[in-house]
Amino acid sequence: MWLDHDLTPSQLKESVKKEEFRNGLLGYLEDIIKQDLSNFDFDTSETDVPERQHTHIISNNECAISTTESNTTKLIPLIMPTPKPSMTNFALHFKNDIVQLNPTCRMRMPRRIENVSSINIESGEIKLKRLHETINNFNEYIISACRSNMDIKYIFSGSDAKALVYYITDYVTKSNLSFHDTFDLY
Question: Where are the domains of the chain?
Answer without folding.
Answer: 10-35+111-175
